[in-house]
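Bit of a strange request maybe. I'm writing a small parser for structure token strings and I need a real example to test against, not something I typed by hand. Could someone generate the tokens for this chain?
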Amino acid sequence: QKKRRAATARRQHLKSAMLQLAATEIEKEAAAKEVEKQNYLAEHCPPLSLPGSMQELQDLCKKLHAKIEAVDEERYDTEVKLQKTTKELEDLSQKLFDLRGKFKRPPLRRVRMSADAMLRALLGSKHKVCMDLRANLKQVKKEDTEKEKDLRDVGDWRKNIEEKSGMEGRKKMFEAGE
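Reply from user aminoacidic:
Good idea to test on real output. This should exercise your parser:
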């Protein structure tokens, strides 16, 4: 038990040391990201100097609008490239699954839908016929089988036992068996 306690204490110590190292690494990464962000902003966004006259102010606004349009076009282009690459990745992964012979099942959801709702979803507003599936079924009367008749004829179980009790009942059973 001493060894177990020592092992658990050592494990706890190692775990806490690892957590402390991870926390310091996270803090360092956050500081590095902040410095990188400041450098990027200083490089791409020069400090704003507002001119005094109205004409210079309008020229500045036009320049800013041109920069905004350029950035918007660049953002749109990168989004389109990203969508294309994700689509290509999905296609390639599907081809890979096909080549391996393993097919990925799509996640299916169970949907409760009546026949009318299903036809309405498939056909749209054209669907006007009501699908009452039970309306066209035949009416079938239940016929009495011989077993059910025998069970009804037997009646009360006490009477049946009384009839079979004694020598007379055994005689009847013996005669019925022949």
